Amino acid sequence: xRAVILKKQGDIDQLSMAELPIPTPNDNQVLIRVHxxxxxxTDIYARKNPALDYIFNNETPKILGWDVSGVIEAVGINAKxxxxxxxxxxxxxxxxxxxxxxxxxxxxxxxxxxDDIALKPSNISHDAAAAAGMAALTTWQPLSKKPxxxxxxxxxxxxxxxxxxxxxxxxxYFGAYVIAVASGSKKELVMSLGADxxxxxxxxxxxxxxxxxxxxxxxxxxxxIGKTLRIVKKGGTLLSLWSHIEGSEWEKRAKELDVHAYYNxxxxxxxxxTAIAGLMKQGVVKSHxxxxxxxxxxxxxxxxxxxxHTAGKIIVNP
Length: 318
Prior knowledge:
The chain is of the alpha/beta class. The protein has helices at residues 41-48, 126-131, 134-145, 164-173, 187-192, 206-209, 223-228, 249-257, 270-282, 298-305, and strands at residues 2-6, 15-19, 29-39, 67-75, 87-91, 109-113, 117-119, 153-157, 177-182, 197-200, 213-218, 232-240, 260-263, 289-294, 313-317.
């Protein structure tokens, strides 16, 4: 099979095409012929940052990627809920801060733990399914712990990005009044997904035009949290999608403001993927794919994502 390997951590010139054996699933895995791969910011960090080398578990070759959608071609003996020919998708074997997670998804075939995948709805494409892995789970999982209530005013930053465009839809699903903050080029997208108000951060400071809100979904990092905390009502909630809150200056500031601020690390979870699949089947949630690349163009996909202006998701097709 063809795969994109990472020779060593660094720039995009470390990504290289290779011919490798097709992997064999163990008893609790399935073999997936990959139709679509979703590229995430985490892929970029893992490619660049030697401190994240532990995720590869000392295995060679190193292969990035965690989000896939495809068709099952072989099953382990314990994969009783799946059969050959099933169309499935998921976030595979995602690492934690202390454990490895070498999913090896940048390839024509990948093995997946049965607990990480869900059946793909027949009415959505493989591209749309792959796009709804890590990006959708990143917001869905924390919202199940600290739910948005019907009628809450919710501010979402980076609302037009991969995670943000799912956050808008989930907030609407829970009955929120959604205020989306993004660049003006993404206004049409986020409004089409259900946002009630839009603020172009390039032209307007949301603190000057928005009344206090019940809930913030913060899609930006670090110091921006200090700004969004100021828009949350007393007793309200701020979910940070990227920056740790516990033990940080933002935890102290949030307590001073009587705001519940928290961070949640995304994990692979087939049950959560199944819940998202149900919403996609109903048409409640949809993926926006802005650009597609071929497997041999993976470096170009990384370059595009590194511009930090992507609307929705970038997909690679083996």
